[in-house]
Structures are given as C-alpha cells and as structure tokens.
Amino acid sequence: MTTSTRRYAIAAVTVAAVGLTAIYAVTRTGGVDQFAACRTTAIVGGPGAIGGPFTLTDENGRKVTEKDVLTEPSLVYFGYTFCPDVCRADTARNAETTDALEEMGHLVQPVFISVDPARDTPEVLKEWTDYIHPRLIGLTGTPEEIAAVTKTYKTYFKTPDDKADPYYLVDHMTQTYLMLPGEGFVEFFDRETDPETMASRVACFLDAAAGQN
Q1: Cβ-based neighbours of 213, under 8 Å, separated by 6 or more
Q2: Cα–Cα dist 172/7, whole Å
Q3: Considering the chain, what is the average pLDDT of its residues?
Q4: Kind and range of the H or E element at 91?
Q5: 3-state helix, strand, coil in the chain (%, to 5)
Q6: How confident is the model at residue 79 (pLDDT cuts 50, 70, 90)?
Q7: DSSP of 121-154, one letter per residue?
Q8: 3-state class of 89 per DSSP?
Q9: Do 94 and 60 touch, CB atoms closer than 8 A?
Q10: SS3 per-residue string spanning 57-85
C-alpha cells in the first residue's frame, strides 16, 4: 500500500469511527432529542462522545481551557497554518458561515486548533487568524496537549517522523465541530458543506437550543 493510499485508508477508518460514535439522539434531559430536526444523520452514540476538557495556549500566549474558549456557540476546526490549501479554504468557509449567522442574528465563535505545534507558535497563529477573521481564536500547545485534545475530539492527525524539510505536510481530518454551551458537541460538518448550507444548519441548532431555555 502506497503512503497516499495508506493515508486515505486510515482517514476513512477514522471518519467511520467518528460517524459511529459522534452523533447522539438522546439528550441529558430525558429521552427526546431537541435537535432531531436539525441532524443530517440518525446514528446513535452517547452524550459526550466528542469534546471535553482541554488546556491549550491561545494566540496571545495565554494558557486557556475549554471553559475560557467555548463560552458561546463555537465552530471548532483542527488544522495548521502551513497547510497549502485545505485548511485555508475550510477556515475561510467557517469565517463566511460566522458572518452569515451574524446577519441572521446568531453570534458564533470560530476556533482553530493547530495540529502542528512545532511551527504554529502563538505569534504565527495570531497573524494567520487575524487575517482570516477578527474573531477567530487560534489555539496551540505542547505536542502532548495537542495529542490529548485531538483524542478528546476523536479526530486524526499525523506529522512526519522526519521534519528536516521545513515545508513538511501534516495529514489530518477536516470536520468542523459545532459546540454549544451547556450541551457540548451537537454536530459536525464536512468540508463539502458550503457557507450558506452550514449557516442554515447551525441556525437550526441554535434556534432549537434557544427554544429549550
């Protein structure tokens, strides 16, 4: 199996694992999924299967936890700033979705978590995220912290063992996670979802959450 083929095979297995564990249809408040009308899959898993506590460093060099970052509805994406095309396109899509939702009266927080901490220092992240969107939060950390948060979010990344080439690429998954305060993970979006569709789907979740308050 070639490196490229093996990479896609691993990613495909990981995608399947996320699909089997990520989407849940029973809320903590007793048997009825308040978001049922918003979901695009009917796969049942368990509440809390995706996401959880983390400690990382933000683009200003401050240690933060999920309690500092995920204080409002958030679109969380894992990538890296040296990514030649995919990460830029996906993060720009999330920025467009953020603006579209604001026009609809919904405020969401875009979040970018680096899977390349060796190169993505806070300074590098700050320049990159400020260029993409003024509210985009960039997070990095130690290799151990990044490994821990990616495990928590059931996502995959792989850096090359030999980093002698300064332009090395990082294999990673490209889902964007919708996290809601008080609910945690509720849905993810693949990279084929356009900004308008994504904004509409996110708004459905936000309206449903507001209806329960």
Answers
A1: none
A2: 9
A3: 85
A4: helix 86-103
A5: 35, 20, 45
A6: very high
A7: -HHHHHHHHHHH-TTPEEEE--HHHHHHHHHHTT
A8: helix
A9: no
A10: EECCCCEEEHHHHCCCCEEEEEECCCCCC
Answer whether 110's CB lies under 8 Å from 137's CB. Answer: yes
CA-wise closest residue to 184 among 86, 45, 20: 45
**Which region holds residue 131: left if phi is over 0, alpha if psi is between -120 and 50, else beta?**
alpha
CA distance 28 to 5: 40
pLDDT in tens, 127-173: 999 999 999 999 999 999 999 999 999 999 999 988 888 999 999 99
Query: Rounded to whole angstroms, what are the CA distances from 112 to 33, 63, 137, 175?
Result: 28, 15, 6, 12
